[in-house]
Amino acid sequence: HPIETIENKCGVRIVEYDVRTDSCGAGRWRGGAGQVMTAEFLRDGGTVQLRSMDRFRFPPWGVAGGKPGKPIHCVFNRGRAGEYVVGKTEEISVNKGDTITIMMPGAAGFGDAFQRDPEAVRWDVEQGFVGREAAEREYGVVIDEAGALDAAATDKTRRGRVRENVGSDFDFGPEREVWESVFDDETMGELNRLLYTFPKSVRQAKRRAVFHAAVPEISKAGSGTLTDILSDTDAVRARL
Fold first, then answer.
1. Is 69 exposed, middle or buried (0-12, 13-18, 19+ CB in 10 A)?
2. What does the pLDDT look like over 37-72, one tens digit per residue?
3. Residue 124's closest CA among 135, 115, 113, 133?
4. How many whole angstroms separate alpha carbon 32 and alpha carbon 46?
5. Which residues in the chain come in under a pLDDT of 50?
6. Could you give the C-alpha distances from 238 to 182, 215, 234, 235, in angstroms and in order?
7. CA angle, 72 then 74 then 77, to 5°
8. DSSP state letters, 55-92
9. In the 8-state DSSP scheme, what is residue 29?
């Protein structure tokens, strides 16, 4: 909906609506960038309903040497007193002056990012899709402070890089890799077999209870990464 319509009907003011820099997965063909939007609430006693907020835990995966995109991130009162990460939830209560910032996920990249046209990367930096540091780190493209392409430095950086993940079919990201180091195919197959011994109406609740028992911090989606909360895989397996 047009921002003007939202502001007129919903008692909010949109104070930020922009590209989410570095949300797109690097690749010869980079992923699409997510958006970032901040809404300020103009009345007390409001409720914000949050729907279809996926990609909190697992980012979109890269293909053929491309890198994963960034997962979604949502913050209440960003940069102010009372700031906290909203995480995956359904609704929050808000009052006048509160803000909520939604940083939408970016798509994944396809192909080796070091083969992307340097001029295309320079344009990405100019437009705000990719930051200067990410341009050098992910694409091997050096952009000076004035925004110009440094061709010599770019050539040197690209020739000296360590080839990681180039040519692999998929890059699922560290979150998916650490998750499947615990919840592998055999484990999930056994879990599903046991769930099917329960009536269909309670299977989802039982499944959720198992994950919460094994990974107590799992409900804090968006406030950390799975690589953090699954760092001690032996402990997680013991609880499971």
1. buried
2. 999 999 999 888 887 777 778 888 999 989 999 998
3. 135
4. 33
5. none
6. 10, 11, 6, 5
7. 160
8. -SSSPPPEETTPPP-PPPEEEESTTSTT-EE--S-SEE
9. B
What's the pLDDT tens digit per position in 126-153?
A: 999 999 999 999 999 999 999 999 999 9
Which two three-digit tokens encode residue 202? Answer: 């309670």
Ramachandran angles phi, psi of 94, nearest 5°: -135, 155
Q: Which two tokens stand for residue 122?
A: 């320079």
CB 196 within 8 A of CB 203: yes
Is residue 188 packed enough to be buried (19+ CB in 10 Å), middle (13-18) or exposed (0-12)?
Answer: exposed
